[in-house]
Inverse folding.
């Protein structure tokens, strides 16, 4: 470090300042103009276009259709509905196979094996009934829908449809006072909220980026799809004739996902008019050309990158959660297990908002991963109702392929159509999982906004389920 | 056709410079002890990540939408006896640092001093992509242009003359279709040629700006060159100073810019410079 160099640097800077004020304000544009005209000249010399080709016209025709004011939204909803329908109806067979393999076949073998080598009951209870079964359930329920949904989604992405969705939604985001690029981060959130939160880095303005982070949780992430799909199949699918059940369930799931998008707009709107006021910034969105998707590569990357990774995360959380659930159901205080105490404690609040204590406890236990909500709910229901002949005992997670049996189990636990609907709503509107909360903290570097991001959805979730329960009870009189 | 010839060909293959892809060793994320750093720049959605994956063997997620890569990805490969570290920069339309991702890309090319900067260009949108190429050429002269998506250009009936483009830009231009792994051997050769100094680029610089602007830039460039001799991009720094770029002003004050010239900041006309703070 030299003293005189600093002086010379300051001298250069002063000269620059002086020259700059002499040049006038359009200097920047002049230089950009020089770059652009050079680029145009070079391009002119190197590229020859023998007229417009049919391919370009085809691209334009598709674009005119999928981004049209009239057809854009219906096509969008139709495409997503088809995707969910394929996922829901296609996942049944492999799901049944996996649960037959892991739960009906392997599980009894493990239990007999454990008994044969004389392990103490609490050890094999913890290991096999708790950890193994929890994990097996997550694998058999989550793997098939993900293995169908992610490749389909990736194919759409590879084809170039996602930017068109962003284009369709752009004006809505702008109306809501958010950044148009939020359409992209919301799309990412449909896969995983933590990924969606990281993706908000593409938004330049800190204000709009914060809005995008706070509302990303309303994009239904893949950990919550199984809950939605199962509950929709049980409660909505059973309302219509069997051949329409798949379609009705798919529409219900699309409806919940759509509600999430509506909430995103509503929350963004109210945030940008209260605590996060400011200018809406403009941006240019490039609609890339449609490219024929590379089927095999897409299958490979979506299975490896997304499916296995997400599944791995679920398994990692399911192992300790399975153990914890087993422990809370098998440690008794005053004649009742800890889980029963907790359920009894939470039940009044739960019923008040049209849910129940079992569901609330499941959400507390499942903070690390949304994926294990459903297995926890089922296990706790068996525990509370004392249903016999189903499952293997207290705190044992299990699977029931027969939806009728499952439905009657839930009904005996006091579930109604309202409980089902409110569970779907609460699954959409509650706190982000712990990974997402941690990601939000890393991205915002603010404990305050992280707290807001974590608590705001829970408060909203209780409000929405409470309102639905009240209206339901007024209209129908039961629940 | 006797066996002798076949054997001879087989042995010669490994050494032959045409046998490039076979010389490529994908190193994935293991990239310690690299000889050269290669930056991948380009407009959004031109296939930077596809090129990145093809060279490193990594499977960073690629997708057909702009702005997908928000974080910098790094990977390694070995080619022709040298180890390369490849850095995938976020896609940007310009380097004038309007947004964090543009700034990230610009900072890496400027301060990270990559040995080669590969600008991935969409062959179907040459003109808009060239805006970025020209700006990169203002910062560094060690550039290879990868003319990607040639398959799409063909489908659209566009004929792109890569030789003319190379002559115009003064840097190697390699046509490619990274999605189908076409042109990667040419790209590797060009990168290694520039990295090893086998090929010296003579980059095109902007020279059609208005006279007053040109004079102002020249005046500041001369002063910067006097304070930091050997700085390869004095003219670009001059432009940024004229534009009042705080980031560059700070970098100058802190001396970060001086290190870019490869030589320490020197005092042009005063040999009695007072040295403070140790060795330099």
């Amino acid at each position: 470090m030299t003293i005189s160099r600093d002086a010379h640097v300051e001298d250069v800077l002063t000269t620059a300042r002086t020259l700059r004020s002499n040049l006038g304000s359009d200097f920047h544009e002049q230089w950009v103009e020089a770059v652009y005209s050079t680029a145009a000249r070079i391009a002119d010399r190197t590229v020859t276009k023998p007229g417009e080709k049919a391919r370009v016209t085809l691209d334009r025709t598709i674009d005119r259709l999928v981004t049209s004011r009239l057809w854009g939204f219906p096509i969008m909803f139709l495409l997503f509905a088809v995707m969910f329908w394929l996922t829901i109806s296609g996942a049944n067979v492999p799901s049944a196979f996996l649960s037959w393999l892991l739960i009906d076949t392997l599980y009894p073998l493990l239990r007999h094996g454990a008994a044969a080598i004389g392990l103490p009951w609490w050890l094999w209870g913890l290991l096999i009934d708790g950890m193994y079964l929890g994990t097996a359930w997550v694998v058999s329920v989550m793997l098939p829908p993900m293995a169908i949904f992610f490749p389909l989604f990736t194919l759409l992405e590879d084809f170039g449809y996602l930017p068109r969705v962003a284009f369709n939604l752009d004006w809505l985001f702008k109306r809501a006072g958010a950044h148009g690029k939020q359409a992209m981060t919301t799309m990412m959130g449909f896969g995983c909220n933590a990924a969606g939160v990281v993706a908000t880095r593409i938004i330049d303005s800190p204000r709009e980026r914060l809005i995008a982070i706070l509302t990303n949780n309303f994009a239904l992430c893949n950990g919550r799809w199984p809950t939605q799909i199962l509950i929709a199949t049980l409660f909505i699918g059973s309302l219509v004739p069997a051949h329409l059940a798949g379609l009705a369930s798919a529409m219900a799931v699309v409806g919940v996902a759509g509600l999430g998008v509506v909430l995103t707009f509503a929350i963004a709107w109210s945030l940008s008019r209260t605590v996060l006021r400011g200018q809406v910034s403009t941006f240019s969105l490039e609609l890339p050309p449609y490219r024929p998707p590379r089927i095999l590569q897409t299958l490979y990357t979506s299975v490896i990158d997304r499916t296995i990774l997400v599944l791995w995360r679920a398994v990692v959380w399911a192992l300790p959660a399975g153990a914890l659930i087993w422990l809370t159901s098998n440690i008794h205080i005053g004649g009742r297990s800890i889980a029963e105490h907790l359920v009894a404690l939470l039940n009044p609040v739960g019923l008040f908002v049209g849910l129940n204590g079992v569901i609330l406890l499941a959400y507390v236990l499942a903070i690390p991963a949304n994926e294990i909500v459903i297995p926890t709910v089922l296990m706790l229901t068996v525990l509370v109702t004392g249903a016999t002949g189903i499952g293997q005992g207290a705190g044992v997670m299990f699977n029931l392929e027969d939806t009728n049996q499952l439905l009657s189990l839930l009904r005996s636990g006091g579930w109604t159509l309202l409980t089902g609907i409110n569970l779907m709503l609460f699954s959409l509107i509650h706190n982000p999982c712990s990974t997402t909360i941690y990601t939000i903290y890393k991205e915002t570097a603010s404990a305050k906004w992280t707290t807001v991001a974590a608590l705001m959805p829970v408060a909203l979730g209780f409000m929405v389920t409470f309102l639905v329960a009240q209206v339901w009870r007024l209209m129908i009189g039961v629940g | 056709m006797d066996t002798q010839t076949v054997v001879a060909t087989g042995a010669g293959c490994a050494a032959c410079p045409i046998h490039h892809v076979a010389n490529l060793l994908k190193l994935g994320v293991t990239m310690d002890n690299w000889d050269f750093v290669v930056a991948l720049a380009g407009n959004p959605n031109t296939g930077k990540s596809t090129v990145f994956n093809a060279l490193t063997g990594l499977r960073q997620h690629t997708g057909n939408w702009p702005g997908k890569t928000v974080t910098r990805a790094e990977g390694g490969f070995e080619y022709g006896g040298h180890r390369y570290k490849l850095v995938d920069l976020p896609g940007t339309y310009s380097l004038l640092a309007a947004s964090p991702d543009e700034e990230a890309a610009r900072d890496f090319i400027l301060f990270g001093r990559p040995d080669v900067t590969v600008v991935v260009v969409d062959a179907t949108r040459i003109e808009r992509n060239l805006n970025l190429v020209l700006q990169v050429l203002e910062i560094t002269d060690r550039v290879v242009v990868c003319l990607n998506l040639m398959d799409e250009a063909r489908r659209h009936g566009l004929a792109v003359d890569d030789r003319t483009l190379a002559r115009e830009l003064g840097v190697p231009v390699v046509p490619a279709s990274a999605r189908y792994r076409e042109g990667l051997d040419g790209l590797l050769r060009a990168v290694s040629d520039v990295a090893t100094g086998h090929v010296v680029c003579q980059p095109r610089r902007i020279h059609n700006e208005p006279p007053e602007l040109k004079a102002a830039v020249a005046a500041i460039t001369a002063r910067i060159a006097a304070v930091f001799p050997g700085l390869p991009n004095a003219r670009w720094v001059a432009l940024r100073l004229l534009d009042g770029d705080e980031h560059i002003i700070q970098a100058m004050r802190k001396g970060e810019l001086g290190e870019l010239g490869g030589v320490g900041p020197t005092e042009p006309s005063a040999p009695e410079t007072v040295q403070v703070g140790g060795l330099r």
